[in-house]
Amino acid sequence: MLIPNQKHLFDIPADVTFLNCSYVSPLLNRVKQSGIEGMAKRSSPWRITMDDWFAPSEELRALFASLINADKENVAFIPAVSYGMAIAAKNISLRANQKIILLDQQYPSNVYPWRQLSIESGAEIITVKKQPGRSWTEVILEKIDEHTGLVALPNCHWTDGSWVDLEKIGQEIRKRNAKFVIDASQSLGAYPLDINKIKPDFLATVGYKWLLGPYGLGYLYCDQKYCETGRPIENTWINRRGSEDFSRLADYTDEFKSGARRFDAGEFIDFARMPMAITALTQVLNWGVIRIQETLSELTSEIEIRAQHAGYETPEKKDRVGHMIGIKVPAEQISSVSKKLSENKIYVSIRGTSMRVAPYLYNDVEDVKRLFEFLDTQASG
């Protein structure tokens, strides 16, 4: 069942057409209010109790685990995907005769750590390029062999939404006893993902895009083996066993808290961002990710039809996720089109040679019409 338009839950002016959730999502009004209330409490530290330090983080840990069908013991909090990838890189060992598989033009946070690991280990990076008429999944599977040591991927390409079948690829990776790392920033919250079917070693995501949360608070999933023996990239007091008892912090211990908490970033407890993220994830879960995907697919299908009718190239529906779509724009037109769109309060992203259009539940067909009325005017002008 499709979700009715939810623009009334956001503070978006009537003359703004924001088709750019893949960039930064607008905040739900309730999320904004949660942040204001959190900052008010932070302004009066005498009101902050021990429960305020730790209870919200455990609630949020459970919410995120529910989103990906995982156990909350396998969830850690990170400030950025790059932080999560640094943890993954520290806990993955490769040999010089092994290979690291990446996508062409993959997002940098899921590239730079593996370039460094390649230098340190001698493992070779294989960059998979998209081929006409073939899916990402097909060309990735062709590259996985007995020499594959690590595959690091997104669920969809950040420039145009073209889809990667993580379940099928995960099955092949496990046959080769290779490692699997996922950056889910451009899909999680809008596209269904089940950890138990994909079985990655690590999955990291930001919280400020499709999870509708604040900037600077992201999430890391770790396979159980890393929760038991993994090495964090920092030694913070807060991930040590017994740190809830402030009176005994100087009773130093080498024991970590249980599960993935050993990977929690220092100062991840934020009295404004934590309640904001709780409010946001609660709403996403209430809507349901499957329903979100179905609803947004209606809009991107309309975008695909209108784009192709106007002579633009887009990924076909069968080859992309339903929550975003890339429209190929001639290189000589990209900068001027982008500038004029913003001037007319129509907001999309230019990524590579694609105009990336990423609607959300605050959008409707009228927003799509407005985008293409503008593009038609530019083409005729």
Describe this structure in words.
- It is a single chain.
- The chain is an alpha/beta fold.
- It folds into two domains: 7-19 and 290-380, Aspartate Aminotransferase, domain 1 (Alpha-Beta Complex), CATH 3.90.1150; 34-286, Type I PLP-dependent aspartate aminotransferase-like (Major domain) (Aspartate Aminotransferase, domain 2), CATH 3.40.640.10.
- The protein has helices at 29-43, 50-68, 81-90, 112-121, 136-143, 166-175, 195-198, 224-229, 273-287, 289-309, 334-343, 365-380; strands at 17-18, 75-78, 99-103, 124-128, 148-154, 179-183, 202-205, 218-222, 325-328, 346-347, 349-351, 354-357.
- A seven-stranded mixed β-sheet has the order 2-8-7-6-5-3-4, sandwiched between helices. It has a three-stranded antiparallel β-sheet with strand order 9-12-11, covered by helices on one side. It has a two-stranded parallel ribbon with strand order 1-10.
- Helix 4 links the parallel strand 3 (99-103) and strand 4 (124-128).
- Helix 1 packs antiparallel against helix 9 (273-287) and helix 2 runs parallel beside helix 9.
- The chain is globular.
- It starts with 16 loop residues before the first strand and ends with a helix.
- 44% of the residues are buried.
